[in-house]
């Protein structure tokens, strides 16, 4: 009996994992660090991008040799919550970006771009 309950709990917990894939019928949540840059991979090409607050983050589609726009460049500006709707192939992908000093481990389709900040010293 214990084994059946254990298998059932594993099966339920496996189906309830919340991976942020770009599904069209769900809101996908990403926690990002403010003042950073990321690349987000999509399964389809992005035709239209609607951003709720451009002061929090900017999103640009990247045009490659194939001109497929299946990758997005994300630049986070300040802390806050921003909703993004990406239209592709008559589907709407809803993304919610939460930016701040604390962030989660990156998802498999989100790549951070590590560019060090340049610190300018004041000359006396």
Description:
There is one protein chain. By secondary structure, the protein is mainly beta. It has 1 helix and 8 strands; from the N terminus they run αββββββββ. The protein has one helix at residues 2-15; strands at 27-33, 37-41, 48-51, 57-62, 71-76, 80-88, 91-100, 110-113. A 4-stranded mixed sheet has the order 1-7-6-3, with no helix packed on it. Strand 4 and strand 5 form a beta hairpin. Mean pLDDT is 76; it is low at 14-21.
> What's the alpha carbon Rg, rounded to whole Å?
18 Å
- What's the end-to-end separation, in Å? 77 Å
pLDDT below 50 for ≥5 consecutive residues: which ranges?
14-21
Q: Give the strand order of the largest sheet, numbering strands 1, 2, ... along the chain.
A: 1-7-6-3
Q: What is the residue-mean pLDDT, rounded to a whole number? A: 76
Please give the number of β-strands: 8
* Distinct helical segment count: 1
Largest sheet properties:
4 strands, mixed
Tertiary shape: globular
**Secondary-structure element series:** HEEEEEEEE
Q: Which structural class fits the helix and strand makeup?
A: mainly beta
Fraction of residues in β-strands:
35-45%
How much helicity do the residues have?
Answer: 10-25%
């Amino acid at each position: 009996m214990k084994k059946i309950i254990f298998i059932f709990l594993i099966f339920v917990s496996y189906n309830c994992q919340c991976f942020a894939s770009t599904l069209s019928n769900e809101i996908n949540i990403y926690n990002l660090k403010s003042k950073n840059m990321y690349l987000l991979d999509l399964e389809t090409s992005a035709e239209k991008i609607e951003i709720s607050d451009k002061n929090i983050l900017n999103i640009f589609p990247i045009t490659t040799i194939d001109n497929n726009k299946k990758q997005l460049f994300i630049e986070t500006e300040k802390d806050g919550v921003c909703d993004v709707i990406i239209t592709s192939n008559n589907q709407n992908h809803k993304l919610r970006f939460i930016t701040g000093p604390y962030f989660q481990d990156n998802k498999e389709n989100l790549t951070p771009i590590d560019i060090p900040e340049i610190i300018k010293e004041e000359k006396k």
